[in-house]
Amino acid sequence: MSWEIHVDRARCAGSGLCLAQVPAVFDQSEDDGKVLLNTPAPEPALAAAVRTAAGRCPSGAITLHETGPDAGGV
Amino acid sequence: MPSSTDTAVPVHTRRDRFDPAGELRLMAGGEPVTRIDGGPQAGDVPVWLVTGYAEVRQVLGDHRRFSTRRRFGARTAPDGPRPDELVGQLLDYDPPEHTRLRQFLTPEFTLRRMRRLEPGITALVTEHLDAMERSGPPADLMAAYASPVPGAALCQFIGVPRDDRADFLRRCHAFLAAGRGRRRRAAAGELLSRYIAALVARRREDPDDGFLGMLARDHGDRITDAELRGVCVLLVLAGLDNVSGMLGLGTLLLLGHPGQLALMRDDPAAVDGAVDELLRYLTVPHAPTPRTALEDVEVGGRLIRAGEHVVCSLPMANRDGALLAEPDRFDITREPAAHVAFGHGVHHCLGATMARMELRIAFPALLRRFPGLRLAVPESEVPFRVHALAHGVDRLPVTW
């Protein structure tokens, strides 16, 4: 199953927790302190870490979405 | 001696040592949302207490329907300009006003910037441990360490000149200790504001690398003096007693759990998780700014009507089984939980990364310096804070 990460920069509170947890996927802008995505579709090995980071995001700005023909939001 | 279960204390701030007070749990009685007596401030407007984890996240995450603009006791938004003492106080702002002001501040708190501050914080911690070691044992851990370390860190961060720091911190603590008495609080707030206003003027003229200097240099023409002043007052409100409360209360808790204390002292890999479990378990802020519903909203099966007020209990939410299993067990080896000790949503604590960093440095450094650290009085004699914005202990007599 393939999936994609969405980040809502309007919602992001700039805690940097995601960058601290999965620096391969998330970054934090030095201009506005908000989340940046290095890649929306990281390698499967990072799935668990990304899921945890999304769950701990203090503003609910990170969501995971399945991609493919029958995909809906997760 | 007053206890934090006194009925004069607002119910959502009541604690029983490390735990939310028993009557708070009883009152919630398994219901995530209950009506409470909002006290004289609320007038005849209904006030709801939200204690469920999912429900707290729902309210705090929904800034479109739950406003933080201060209007306690009124069903409608305040008319006219914001009162002077609330200008720059982000917690009184809703988006898009909030977004405009906060966007200048978040870059000052990024993970990378905090990592650059780390050596400075480590040096402050060492300095205070040296002084404590020279003058003891025994010592009051609050006066010698838990209170001055966040104080010095805040001064360094804002850019308060070294010679001014003692005076500035005296004004801060007088303001924080003034409690809810309106007149006393206003007078102490005025003394603090006056110093900060002078510092703002100075940093506009001569910007340094601190928070105020950077803001003045990077956004000086887009942010007013009153806003800069208000933002600094907010840092004082958020960055002192919350951190010192965590350090004092956390040390006391760890002293009662020697195995976990040893783990935090000896295993650097355990520290991050330990700090987040301490944050979750102790959750020193009682509640974020009360929200006001802007339209009718159903939360936890109850209908909150437009204009009604909502108080979210952060310590109760963090002890909800919906957040994690065995929520009343303190265990630093847990996977870090998605707790709400720093709030949730667009108002999530701006300084969370800084607070975590201070705690990650200060706890292990203390425990390593004094491996024989123990209480100097029976545990029952440690005075817990009452009527404070953040939970904690007033004094923590220790020896080693």
UniProtKB/TrEMBL annotation, chain A:
InterPro entries (UniProt xref): Fe-S_cluster_ET
Membrane-spanning parts: none
Keyword S-adenosyl-L-methionine annotated: no
Keyword terms: 3Fe-4S, Electron transport, Iron, Iron-sulfur, Metal-binding, Transport
Entry GO MF terms: 3 iron, 4 sulfur cluster binding; metal ion binding
Cofactor(s) this protein cannot do without: [3Fe-4S] cluster
Pfam families attached to this UniProt entry: Fer4_15
PANTHER family membership: FERREDOXIN (PTHR36923)
UniProt-recorded name of the protein: Ferredoxin
Organism (species): Streptomyces albiflavescens
TrEMBL record, chain B:
Entries under CDD domains matching the protein: CYP105-like (cd11030)
Swiss-Prot/TrEMBL keywords: Heme, Iron, Metal-binding, Monooxygenase, Oxidoreductase
MF GO annotations: heme binding; iron ion binding; monooxygenase activity; oxidoreductase activity, acting on paired donors, with incorporation or reduction of molecular oxygen
UniProt key word Heme: yes
Family of this protein: Belongs to the cytochrome P450 family.
PANTHER family: CYTOCHROME P450 YJIB-RELATED, P450, PUTATIVE (EUROFUNG)-RELATED
Protein name: Cytochrome P450
Organism expressing this protein natively: Streptomyces albiflavescens
